[in-house]
C-alpha cells in the first residue's frame, strides 16, 4: 500500500483501485494535533461511522466497500472505500446555535449568510436546520465560513443545490434517529465526493463525535453551554490551561483523556444500542 495522505486524525492509503481510510487515536483541537492520544478513539469513530452509513444508505450512497477487507494491523479502525473526487467545500448543517455559528450570529445576525431571528442565545434551537458551508483550507490554515452564493461560484448552481439538499437531509434523518436514543445533534460536518460516473457520495466519516456535536437530550437547556459527547471536554481543558492554541500543544492529563474516552464510548452506546467491549 502507498500512504497518500496523513491528516490530523486519519491516514489514507492506496490499495489497488480502492482506498484504505484509517482512523487513529490522535485528537486535534484548534487545528493542532495534541501529543496525547485518546485510547480506542479510532475504533469508536470507525464503528460509529459504519453504523450511520448503514442507517442512511437508502437516503444517499456512501463510499464504503468493506469494513473487514483491510490490513490486519488496521483491523477495527479502517474502512476499504471507493476513490472519490472530493467536493472542495465542507458541508455543514446546524440545527442549534453554538460554537462558531453563535459567534457569527452575535456579530451579524446571520450564519453563513442565512439570516436568523433576533434574540437567539447559546444552544437555541433554530427554526429549521440550515446549511452553513465552509472552505477547505490548506494544512496549517483555518477553514472560513462560506455563503451559499460562494458555494455556487465554487461548484456551480446544480451541485450547490445538491450539496445543500443532501446535507440537510442527512442532518434531519440523523437528528431524528439520535433523538429517539436521547441525543441531540447540534450540528454536523459532511464530506461528499463524486464517483467517475458523476454520482455524489458520502465519504470520510459520518455523524461521529469528531464531526458532530452530540448533547444529552435530558439535560438540554438553551442559554448555557451543554454537556457534550465529544472532544469539547478537551477544548475546555485547553482553554483553562492557558495554552495559546499554537503548536506545540501540551500533554493532556490522564483524567481528561479518560473522561473524553468515556464520552466517545457513551455516545457510541447510546446511538447504536451496542455495548462497547
Description of the structure:
This protein has six helices and 15 strands. By secondary structure, it is α+β, with helices and mostly antiparallel strands. Strands 8, 9, 12, 13, 14 and 15 form a six-stranded antiparallel beta sheet that branches. Helix 5 runs antiparallel to helix 6 (254-272). It is globular.
Task: Jot down its keywords.
277 residues; alpha+beta; D-amino Acid Aminotransferase, Chain A, domain 1; 5-stranded antiparallel beta sheet
For the record, the CATH architecture of the domain at 85-219 stands as: 2-Layer Sandwich
Globular, elongated, flat, extended or rod-shaped: what is the shape?
globular
Output the number of helix runs: 6
- Please write the string of helix (H) and strand (E) elements: EEEEEHEEEEHEEEHHEEEHH
- Total strand segments: 15
Largest sheet: 6 strands, antiparallel
**Highest-level CATH class of the domain at 85-219:** Alpha Beta
Give the mean pLDDT: 95
Question: Low-confidence parts, pLDDT < 50 over ≥5 residues?
Answer: none
SSE-based structural type: alpha+beta
CATH-defined fold name of the domain at 85-219: D-amino Acid Aminotransferase, Chain A, domain 1
Helix share of residues? 25-40%
Write a brief caption for the model.
The protein is an alpha+beta fold and 277 residues long. The chain has 6 helices and 15 strands.
Amino acid at each position: 500500500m502507498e500512504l497518500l495522505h496523513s491528516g490530523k486524525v486519519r491516514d489514507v492509503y492506496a490499495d489497488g483501485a480502492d482506498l484504505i481510510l484509517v482512523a487513529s487515536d490522535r485528537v486535534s483541537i484548534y487545528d493542532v494535533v495534541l501529543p496525547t492520544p485518546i485510547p480506542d478513539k479510532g475504533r469508536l469513530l470507525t464503528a460509529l461511522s459504519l453504523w450511520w452509513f448503514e442507517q442512511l444508505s437508502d437516503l444517499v450512497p456512501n463510499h464504503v466497500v468493506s469494513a473487514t477487507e483491510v490490513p490486519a494491523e488496521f483491523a477495527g479502525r479502517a474502512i476499504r472505500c471507493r476513490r472519490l473526487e472530493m467536493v472542495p467545500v465542507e458541508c455543514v448543517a446546524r440545527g442549534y446555535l453554538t460554537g462558531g455559528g453563535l459567534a457569527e450570529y452575535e456579530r451579524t445576525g446571520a450564519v453563513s449568510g442565512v439570516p436568523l431571528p433576533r434574540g437567539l442565545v447559546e444552544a437555541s434551537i433554530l427554526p429549521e436546520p440550515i446549511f452553513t458551508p465552509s472552505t477547505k483550507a490548506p494544512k496549517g490554515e483555518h477553514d472560513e465560513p462560506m455563503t451559499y452564493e460562494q458555494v455556487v461560484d465554487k461548484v456551480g448552481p446544480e451541485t450547490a443545490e445538491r450539496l445543500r439538499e443532501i446535507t440537510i437531509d442527512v442532518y434531519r434523518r440523523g437528528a431524528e434517529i439520535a433523538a429517539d436514543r436521547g441525543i441531540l445533534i447540534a450540528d454536523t460536518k459532511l464530506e461528499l465526493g463524486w464517483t467517475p460516473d458523476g454520482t455524489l457520495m458520502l465519504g470520510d466519516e459520518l455523524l461521529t463525535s469528531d464531526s458532530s456535536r452530540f448533547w444529552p437530550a435530558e439535560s438540554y437547556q438553551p442559554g448555557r453551554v451543554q454537556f457534550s459527547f465529544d472532544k469539547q471536554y478537551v477544548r475546555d481543558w485547553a482553554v483553562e490551561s492557558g495554552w495559546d492554541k499554537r503548536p506545540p500543544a501540551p500533554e493532556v492529563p490522564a483524567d481528561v483523556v479518560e473522561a473524553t474516552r468515556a464520552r466517545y464510548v457513551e455516545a457510541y452506546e447510546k446511538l447504536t444500542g451496542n455495548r462497547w467491549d
